[in-house]
Amino acid sequence: MTTTLADATTRSALFSPDVIGTVPVANRIIMAPMTRNRAGAGNVPTEMMAEYYAQRASAGLIITEASQVSAQGVGYPNTPGIYTDEHEVGWRRVTDAVHARGGRIALQLWHVGRVSHVSMQPDRLSPVAPSAIPVQGKIFTHDGLQPYSMPRPLEIAELPGIVDDFVRGARRAIAAGMDAVELHGANGYLLDQFLRDGSNHRTDAYGGSLGGRLRFVREVASAVADAVGADRVGIRFSPTSVGNTMSDSDPATTFHAAAQMAQSLGLAWVHVVDPVTNGEAGQPPRMLPVLRAAFDGTLIVNGGYRRGSAEAVLARGEADAVSFGVPFIGNPDLPARLAADAPLVTADRSAFYGGDARGYIDYPAWDGGDAPTAA
């Protein structure tokens, strides 16, 4: 007998309703933010993006792909913005489509900082960062792969303007119908760059000590919370991620303080990338208990979870919800498939970044039978 989502709700917290801040959610299965590079001209969200998110409206909460808060915050081609009237109108199409199918959606607010190239910046100016430390490797641009550009250290006088960009982006997101916003403080982008000591070598009030490195993140989070309500604001962290040449000498201390900051501001959720592990050799230490000890709001965990590991982390009280990334690409109705222990489609990785409808909105809903193993 096939287990339905309603049946699973009675037996598992993963499928049970909750409230995150002021947002009622139908289940604890969160759609994680994933860059898909499908925005149109001017980085405006498209009708195809509206359909993509609407197809996944059965998630307890959709957290959108990151959306830059300014032209300076752009790092990649065709990522959506939230700093013009056209962006706001485009995102309104998305929220209307998701709400029409009973879903809830939050916009992730983004400034990439040093993770950019001069060709992606206004007037080909240098990307900005806490310190003049470039990302190693190459970045995808409109002209193909290019070495990351050397960033320019931000002057203290410039920081209030970036705080204002985040505030305006949050206000536009709510005006566009978003239920909430999430600050992108993870994966080596600007907020994360200020927070971690591998990327922040400043000696002024925004560097040096942990309090100094946390200052800019706190200013952004506090201003956005004041603008739209702390109970509609979350923040994402990735304490042990090494992508985009990131590191920290003491992630447990750094991110315990970051979670305490979120607690003190009354933020609705903290979203942490903390990969599921069974104690394998070489795995980074788990950060979830560190953040749990500091934050008593909704704690969302991400990192390779499946139904069993997700149910276990909720049962242990270590997290309150689990976000799923790649599984939502090939399985638009992921909560129903998880509830029924149905086979999951393996998404086509060649279509993850950029392109058309193929590998984006052409994955069918589960029909109750066996799912294919590839799109």
- Helices and strands, in order, run as HEEEHEHEEEEEHEHHEHEHEHEHH
The biggest sheet, with number of strands, parallel, antiparallel or mixed sense and barrel status, is: 8 strands, parallel, barrel
Quote the average pLDDT: 94
CATH-defined architecture: Alpha-Beta Barrel
User: Order of strands across the biggest sheet?
Assistant: 3-4-5-10-11-12-13-14
Query: What do we call the CATH homologous superfamily?
Result: Aldolase class I
Beta-strand content:
15-25%
Count of β-strands = 14
- Rough shape? globular
- State the share of residues found in helices, binned by percent: 25-40%
Can you tell me the CATH topology?
Answer: TIM Barrel
> How many domains, in number, for the residues?
1
User: Termini distance?
Assistant: 26 Å
The oligomeric state is single chain
User: What's the alpha carbon Rg, rounded to whole Å?
Assistant: 20 Å
Class inferred from helices and paired strands: alpha/beta
Uncertain spans, ≥5 residues at pLDDT below 50? 371-375
User: CATH class, please?
Assistant: Alpha Beta
Put the structure in a nutshell:
With 375 residues, the protein is an alpha/beta fold. It has helices at 5-9, 47-55, 85-100, 159-175, 190-195, 210-228, 251-265, 288-294, 307-315, 326-330, 334-339, and strands at 18-20, 23-25, 29-31, 61-68, 105-110, 128-129, 138-141, 144-147, 152-153, 180-184, 233-237, 269-273, 298-302, 321-324. It has one domain (5-342): TIM Barrel (Alpha-Beta Barrel), CATH 3.20.20.
Task: Write up what this structure looks like.
By secondary structure, the protein is of the alpha/beta class. It has a single domain (5-342), classed as Aldolase class I (TIM Barrel, Alpha-Beta Barrel). It is 30% helix and 16% strand. The chain has helices spanning 5-9, 47-55, 85-100, 159-175, 190-195, 210-228, 251-265, 288-294, 307-315, 326-330, 334-339, and strands at 18-20, 23-25, 29-31, 61-68, 105-110, 128-129, 138-141, 144-147, 152-153, 180-184, 233-237, 269-273, 298-302, 321-324. The strands form four sheets. An eight-stranded parallel β-barrel has the order 3-4-5-10-11-12-13-14, surrounded by six helices. The radius of gyration is 20 Å and the shape is globular.
